[in-house]
Structure formats: C-alpha cells, structure tokens
Design a protein that fits this description.
Blueprint: H1 6-10, H2 13-32, H3 39-48, E1 54-55, H4 56-62, H5 67-79, E2 83-87, E3 95-99, H6 101-125, H7 127-140
Antiparallel strand pairs: 1-3, 2-3
Length: 150
C-alpha cells in the first residue's frame, strides 16, 4: 500500500477547518446544553430573530447550509414549537420559517451561555485574533465554489 505524503494530509484546508469546527462546536454545544439547544440550533434561532419570516432557501443561503440539512435541523425546533415551517402563500413550493415567541424566549435564555463561551474563547484566543478569524472564514465563502448548486 502506498501511503500519501504527510505534508499532503497536514496541509489539507478542509481537515484543518473541520477539526477546529468540531472542537469549537463541541465547546459551544456543551455551554448551551442547559438550554436544551445545540450550537447549530442556537445559530438558526439567532438568525431567525433578525427576520420576520424567511424561506428555507434564503435562510440556508444566509447560514451557508444546504436546504436539506437545514430542513432536517428545523424539524426538532418545529416539534418543540420554537419555529413554524409553513408553505408560502405566494409560492406553494417554498416553505416559510418563522420564529415563535417560545423560540425567541429560548434563544434569549441561551444568550448568556453563548456570551460566556464566546468571551472565554476570545479571552483565550485573543479578541483581535477572533475578529480576524471570523473575517477570514467569511472570506472563505467568497472563493467562488458552489457546493449546493443544483
């Protein structure tokens, strides 16, 4: 068996990003656990709190997630009454997502936990470094790939 060169594996952008994502995601999941939300769910509720109503497609684009994965993530939130997902009155093919009052309350209850872990990360990593990291990661989204294009 021919093994790949070590530098090929070590230089993999995808692996480095996923390792950091799993590490940080698990940290946020643990911090948010008392609220019954996972980090992805909190992010969805947080984004929805800035919108009155939004289609699944638009929300998926805003958070850089494919529609199918987003729809899967919305199901438990809908079961708990934190969001509603209904057909659009103007386009029956589109589904409209709305944050409920319970969803807003849960997101607000989770904010102190999120703020704590956010602050802990920035204290450890550095506030300026964290801001640069977010800007760099946002830049990744502008590289021209179309991972969810049909």
């Amino acid at each position: 068996m021919t093994r790949p060169e070590t530098d090929t594996v070590e230089l993999c952008n995808n692996l480095a990003l996923r390792k950091a994502s799993r590490y940080l995601g698990a940290t946020y999941d643990k911090a948010l656990a008392p609220t019954g939300l996972r980090a992805t769910q909190f992010s969805i509720l947080q984004k929805l709190s800035t919108q009155e109503k939004i289609t699944i497609s638009s929300l998926a684009e805003m958070i850089a997630m494919d529609r199918t994965t987003l729809a899967t993530n919305l199901k438990p939130l809908a079961r708990e009454g934190l969001v509603t997902v209904e057909p659009s009155p103007t386009d029956r093919r589109a589904r409209i997502v709305t944050l409920t009052e319970d969803g807003l309350a849960r997101m607000k209850a989770a904010l102190p936990y999120w703020r704590t872990v956010q602050s802990q990360f920035e204290d450890s990593f550095g506030r300026e470094e964290a801001a640069r990291l977010r800007a760099t990661l946002e830049g990744v989204l502008g590289t021209g790939f179309q991972p969810w294009a049909e």
